[in-house]
Amino acid sequence: MRILILGGTGLTGPYAVRRLHELGHEVTVFHRGQHEVQLPAGVRDVRGDFAHPPSEVLHSEPDVVVHMWAMTESDARTFLEAFRGVAGRAVVISSGDVYRAYGCLQRLETGPPALIPLAEDAPLRESRYPYRKMAPNQDHWMTVYDKILVERALLEQSELPATILRFPAVCGPGEYRRFRQWLQPMLRGDAELRVQVDWSEWRWTHGFVDDVAEAVVLAATRARDGSRVYNVGELRTATMRERLEAFAEAAGWRGQIIPVAAAELPESARMPHHFSHHLVYDTSRIRAELGYEEVVPPEEALSRMLAWERAD
After folding, report:
1. How far apart are CA 279 and CA 112, in angstroms?
2. Which of 159, 164, 166, 204 suits 233 as a labelling partner, its CA being 20 to 30 A distant?
3. Domains present along the chain, CATH in parentheses
4. pTM of this prediction?
């Protein structure tokens, strides 16, 4: 197959590129040059602006185009304008932050906790632009980021069938060290680790970077005709305390994890989220329809994440 990947140089992209290349597909990576990665020999490397793809990209007639970086409604509509009639079908990365449970977690909206696990037809957020307050300036893409609008633009048309992958919290080498504040005390050998009690009991579906990338590979090579949405992530979602306990065992740390009220932590360590709203994704659809399963054993994933922390 001829597979064109837009982006592909960030966290999960390089893994997906290598895997697709190993499987014998003809892979082209079209990116903005913001991340330098070593692509496999034989993978075409094209750089430019996603809003104005060069002719060599548009004339490549890909069987599948994978968009790793569609963050806004404008991104999605520009993508559709460029690749309708050019590509056979699309794979587009979305996020579990589309669910109403995420809006409630962030206190952007109210309501009772959703039944978990969240299937692909679970209620979506009614609020919009969830990261606008975190944007560094008014011109930043985070001010208009919303994967709900990306999905809507893709699903309301049929000219470019799209497989949409709702990613979990992706962890592994190269990510922004989401566990750093808890792993570093373990690696230092501290006697105890104080954690916010409601957070310690909270569940959020994660996925190791290689495993999540495998979902991209399967969506590109096995997806059926027509548009379809899939949750991606681990089979069982642990509590955050259970995750820390697994890290402690892998690191050989013998200290104590002590859940405490937020008020007992330094202000910088307090998390204001509504942790009664769990983000547990039902991944049975992608497992049944595309044959998705993890490719990295849990023990290896933990070991690689700890090595990544130690290297800092």
Report:
1. 13
2. 159
3. 2-310 (3.40.50.720)
4. 0.96
